[in-house]
Specification:
The chain is α+β, with helices and mostly antiparallel strands. It is built from six helices and 20 strands. It is globular.
């Protein structure tokens, strides 16, 4: 078995759990590939018996990789999307960050997670992605997102107008600070913080959520994920921000944009004792008596 390890924000406070992770992999005779920058930062603290296979991007990630292990928070998991791309390599996330909807495995369950991979006691969740089509090249070789696509004002505090079309038919003009189109996976992220609904990962839908809309009767809209959603933007300044997950590009109003479901899926490893309901109960503290 070959597991690729990735971490982008190395913290010395995580040395103990990282050392334990490498030791677990060694004890289970698992071969490893390590993100080069991560390896260079941990090498002085966690000496390995031999230099592992190193990778720097999607192109040199070993094709024989069985699992991609993300060590960090949800932002680290979103980075993993561009590493695995359309390879189908399953990704498992250990939460060394804060909330952790995607990186749902707590650090004290790393032993359970590694044993689960070795024994095959896990499930692969196929998560849908968004694909961005644009009239100019944007986001290089990775015009897709696991969580969301957004449009935002950039150089002004004034609202912008986002004319939005669904399968070519006019839907609405959003007067707002921006607009979010999220996948079911992304419904627990930025969209949720803007009062969007929680959507089960298996739902075949996208959520369109305005950011600080001028009209208070404008709310989130759930649409089928076989829709093509396109946009025209107006504002007092010529530049706007366009994002895919945590990646951002600056665009002008003459850029044509449309999003639709990506042709491939993101494979997320879920341990058998974890599920979506358990995750949202734990992360959102549902059913917890805050008076205690």
């Amino acid at each position: 078995m070959l597991i690729a390890l990735y971490n982008r924000n190395f913290e010395e406070e995580n040395i103990a759990v990282l050392r334990h992770t490498f030791e677990l992999l060694r004890q289970n005779h698992i071969h490893i590939a390590v993100y080069k920058d991560f390896y260079e930062r941990i090498a002085p603290h966690i000496p390995l018996a031999q230099t592992p296979v190193l990778f720097t991007n999607h192109n040199d990630l070993p094709r024989a990789t069985d699992f991609f292990l993300s060590l960090g928070g949800d932002g680290t998991m979103l980075d993993a999307v561009c590493f695995v791309a359309d390879s189908g390599i399953p990704v498992i996330g250990v939460n060394l960050g804060r909330l952790g909807f995607l990186a749902a495995i707590p650090e004290d369950e790393i032993d359970i997670a590694i044993r689960g991979l070795v024994r095959g006691s896990y499930t692969i969740d196929k998560r849908s992605l968004l694909h961005l089509s644009s009239s100019i090249p944007l986001f290089g070789s990775f015009p897709f997102a696991l969580n969301e696509f957004t449009l935002h004002r950039k150089d002004s505090s004034s609202m912008i107008k986002i004319h939005t079309f669904l399968n070519g038919e006019f839907l609405n003009t959003y007067w707002s600070d921006g607009l979010i189109v999220s996948t079911p996976t992304g419904s627990t992220g930025y969209s949720l913080s803007c009062n969007g609904p929680l959507v089960f990962p298996q739902a075949s839908s996208f959520v369109i959520t305005p950011v600080a809309p001028h009209n208070l009767n404008i709310r989130s809209l759930v649409v089928p994920d076989d829709s093509v959603i396109s946009f025209e933007i107006e504002g007092r300044t010529p530049h706007f921000l366009c994002t895919l997950d945590s990646r951002v590009e600056s665009i002008t109003s003459d850029v044509q944009l449309a999003v639709q479901k990506e042709r491939f899926y993101f494979s997320l490893v879920r341990l058998d004792e974890h599920n979506f309901l358990k995750t949202i109960r734990q992360k959102l503290f549902w059913g917890i008596d805050s008076r205690n």
